[in-house]
Amino acid sequence: MDVNSQPLNGDTHPNKQFLNEVERLQCVLKEQDKLASIGLITAGILHEIRNPLNFIFNFSKVNAGLLDEFREVLAKGVNNLTHDDFDELKDIEVNLNRNLNKITENGQRAMRIIVNMLAQSRRENAEDFESTDINQLVDEFVKLAYHGIRGNNSVFNLSIITDFDASIGKVNINAHHLGRGLLNIVSNACYAMEQKSKQVQDGTYTPQLTVATKKTTEGFRISIMDNGTGIPDEIKENIFKPFFTTKTSSDGTGLGLSMTHDIIQKLHKGKLEVNSKAGEYTEFVIDIPVKY
Ligand SMILES: Nc1ncnc2c1ncn2[C@@H]1O[C@H](COP(=O)(O)OP(=O)(O)OP(=O)(O)O)[C@@H](O)[C@H]1O
Ligand SMILES: [Mg+2]
């Protein structure tokens, strides 16, 4: 705004006008911040619930197939059913029921994610810190991410090497959010290895995930390394930016690493770093300080 060009009369003194304008712009910025954070929460929810929704979708598909088999056996007519047929019906019923439980569990998980993320957006994060077994948390989320990928691609096999430092013990962290971060890092790793196994089909490639934890002088370190597609140097600087993705819109939102970065650096006052060589490997290193 050109302050000098304003008339000099009464209430419309240039300084006052200038201050009014600053106030107005501050309000606009505040409003924009609010909109941005609403966008982030919405995208965050979309990002997080894709995993349980995948389970729901896959188990529903399996159940539809089982139901077809069930109907085929029943179609023989009650007078023609053999003992084997009955056994088969019983088996199908057990599987249907097991899958239905998984569908319910994952529906509840999706609901919990929405409730937690909305609650999170309304309050400060500090109160959610709790004493947590880091090795158990890492192990749980590595398995969860692997099963997420296997749900979509049952032929994808992975060798997982773990090296857990038991001396870390229990530490005070926000398990809910750190779990989300780990889930994203490991899901990214699995995706990169799945892509590479599609590229290298001559039997020379074995996907391998190496997960290690270590007590450090300030706290603890988690490192997650995959031998997938790697990250080219020219995109390395972009991967922590919100909405940056090299995946199709049905495969990724591009919010995973920016959220993970915030969870580690802002929420836990830690550090998240990446080492990678295109075509060879990617390693994410998480350093979190704790008071022992
Ligand atoms: N382990 C990895 N190997 C290769 N590339 C990776 C790896 N991790 C991340 N990337 C790159 O970083 C980009 C950003 O990752 P980020 O987790 O933020 O989003 P996304 O995985 O694409 O989407 P979403 O997390 O919503 O599924 C990815 O699209 C990919 O290009
Ligand atoms: Mg991701």
Automatic annotation (TrEMBL):
InterPro entries: HATPase_C_sf, HATPase_dom, His_kinase_dom, HisK_dim/P_dom, HisK_dim/P_sf, Sig_transdc_His_kin-like_C. One of its GO terms (molecular function) is phosphorelay sensor kinase activity. Its EC number is 2.7.13.3. The keyword Transcription does not apply. Residues 44-292 form the Histidine kinase domain. SMART domains: HATPase_c. It catalyses: ATP + protein L-histidine = ADP + protein N-phospho-L-histidine. Keywords: Kinase, Phosphoprotein, Transferase. It is an enzyme of class 2 (transferase). SUPFAM superfamilies: ATPase domain of HSP90 chaperone/DNA topoisomerase II/histidine kinase, Homodimeric domain of signal transducing histidine kinase. PANTHER family: SENSOR HISTIDINE KINASE, TWO-COMPONENT SENSOR PPRA. This is histidine kinase.
